């Protein structure tokens, strides 16, 4: 029997150099907004989970600062050092097990680097990424998450499975679409994408995710407690999770959609989706490179989905707040469901600490209410 679980409130804030708030103040502001959206008071929250990483926050045990601001004061709370979608699954487990009626999940990616321009944030992200690879096997050859994306794109172009011009056109369309929503990049043309500085061949800087800073929060609730909220946003009909192979297994390059397929199978079975291309109204992908997009869609069994229903928000090339990305994808999906006045939507989120290597993939199925 599928647990009766809901998203009852959400909030998102993209953080730029113009903010004068400290990290805990940003988290408090965002979580307070999510609680107001849900119509829930802080004392009703039984479980608070943050998704963050000390290396980004430039603090030892940074959740000691952020957890109280995320409704974790005198409460059950924990921190997940991974994509915020993983933190959301942990919260769902607490709700499904009957431990609590309300939970809040906060995703935090506000690097303490003195400036939050895209290149500066990406530079830190890649520096942290290099530390996640094995120091003896991978790090001497310069492995980072972006390098794995470049290796994949180069292999697909060499094999004739992708063309640079097509990748540039797809990227420009996503960035331009996202500029009208929460995108951090202005609208661009395919020519501008192709002419952008090369990041890791054959991918230009604009083909990589739009590295940004942000804080997001969602309030989750179970059963009757959720239905008593003034404006439940969506029912969580199904979820699944899987992890990609490590470096020694060539599967991460040969079939980077394999983990997505496993997570999708679990999520769709729980949600009762048997004809997803017909049943799903929209999907938000974490396709970290445009060369991955088709493979991720296929792994989600959404090859037949019309282009306007894929990454309406512009996806990760419009806005990619690192470890908080999973929550942004959920927030964007809630907007998609509102625009569609209901229906079914899919969220695909993946951490990129190692890029395509050892990446944990989470798939959620949301139903409008």
Description:
It is a single chain. With 369 residues, the protein is of the alpha/beta class. 39% of the residues lie in helices and 20% in strands. Strands 3-2-4-7-1-8-11-10-9 form a 9-stranded mixed sheet, sandwiched between helices. A two-stranded antiparallel ribbon has the order 5-6. A hairpin with a 2-residue loop joins strand 5 and strand 6 (203-204). Helix 1 (23-38) runs parallel beside helix 3 (63-72) and helix 4 (84-96) crosses helix 14. It is globular and about 55 Å long.
CATH class of the largest domain: Alpha Beta
Per CATH, what is the topology of the largest domain? Peroxisomal Thiolase, Chain A, domain 1
Supply the number of structural domains.
Answer: 2
The run of helices and strands is EHEHHEHEHHHHEEEHEHHHEHHEE
Structural class: alpha/beta
Radius of gyration, CA atoms, in whole angstroms:
19 Å
Q: Would you report the number of β strands?
A: 11
Keywords:
single chain; 369 residues; alpha/beta; Peroxisomal Thiolase, Chain A, domain 1; nine-stranded mixed β-sheet; two-stranded antiparallel sheet; 14 helices; 11 strands; globular
What's the structural blueprint in terms of helices and strands?
Blueprint: E1 5-15, H1 23-38, E2 47-51, H2 54-57, H3 63-72, E3 76-80, H4 84-96, E4 102-109, H5 118-132, H6 145-158, H7 164-178, H8 190-195, E5 198-200, E6 203-204, E7 213-222, H9 223-227, E8 234-243, H10 251-254, H11 258-271, H12 276-279, E9 280-284, H13 293-299, H14 325-340, E10 344-350, E11 360-368
Parallel strand pairs: 2-3, 2-4, 9-10
Antiparallel strand pairs: 1-7, 1-8, 4-7, 5-6, 8-11, 10-11
Helix pairs in contact: 1-3, 4-14
């Amino acid at each position: 029997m599928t647990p009766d679980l809901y998203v009852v409130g959400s909030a998102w804030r993209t953080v730029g150099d113009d903010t004068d708030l400290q990290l805990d103040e940003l988290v408090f502001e965002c979580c307070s907004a999510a609680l107001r959206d849900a119509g829930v008071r802080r004392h009703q929250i039984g479980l608070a989970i943050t998704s963050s990483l000390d290396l980004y926050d430039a603090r030892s045990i940074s959740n000691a600062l952020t957890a109280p601001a995320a409704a974790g004061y005198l409460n059950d709370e924990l921190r997940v050092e991974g994509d915020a979608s993983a933190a959301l699954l942990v919260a769902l487990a607490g709700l499904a097990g009957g431990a609590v009626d309300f939970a809040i999940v906060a995703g935090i990616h506000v690097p303490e680097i003195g400036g939050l321009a895209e290149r500066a944030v990406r530079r830190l992200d890649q520096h942290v990424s290099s530390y996640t690879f094995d120091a003896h096997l991978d790090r001497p050859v310069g492995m980072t998450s972006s390098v794995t994306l470049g290796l994949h794109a180069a292999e697909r172009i060499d094999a004739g499975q992708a063309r640079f011009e097509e990748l540039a056109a797809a990227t420009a369309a996503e960035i331009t679409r996202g500029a009208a929503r929460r995108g951090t990049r202005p609208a661009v043309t395919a020519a501008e994408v192709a002419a952008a500085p090369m990041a890791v061949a054959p991918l230009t800087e604009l083909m990589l995710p739009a590295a940004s800073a942000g804080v997001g929060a969602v309030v989750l609730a179970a059963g009757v407690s959720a239905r008593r909220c003034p404006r439940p946003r969506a029912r969580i009909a199904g979820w699944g999770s899987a992890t990609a192979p490590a470096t020694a297994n060539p599967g991460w390059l040969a079939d980077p959609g394999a983990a997505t397929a496993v997570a999708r199978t679990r999520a769709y079975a729980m949600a009762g989706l048997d004809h997803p291309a017909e049943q799903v109204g929209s999907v938000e992908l974490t396709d970290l490179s445009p060369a991955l997009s088709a493979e991720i869609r296929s792994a989600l069994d959404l090859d037949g989905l019309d282009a306007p229903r894929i990454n309406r928000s512009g996806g990760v090339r419009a806005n990619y707040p690192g470890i908080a990305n999973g929550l942004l994808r959920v927030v964007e999906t809630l907007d998609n469901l509102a625009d569609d006045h209901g229906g079914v939507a899919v969220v695909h989120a993946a951490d990129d600490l190692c890029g395509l290597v050892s990446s944990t993939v989470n798939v959620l199925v949301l139903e409008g209410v």
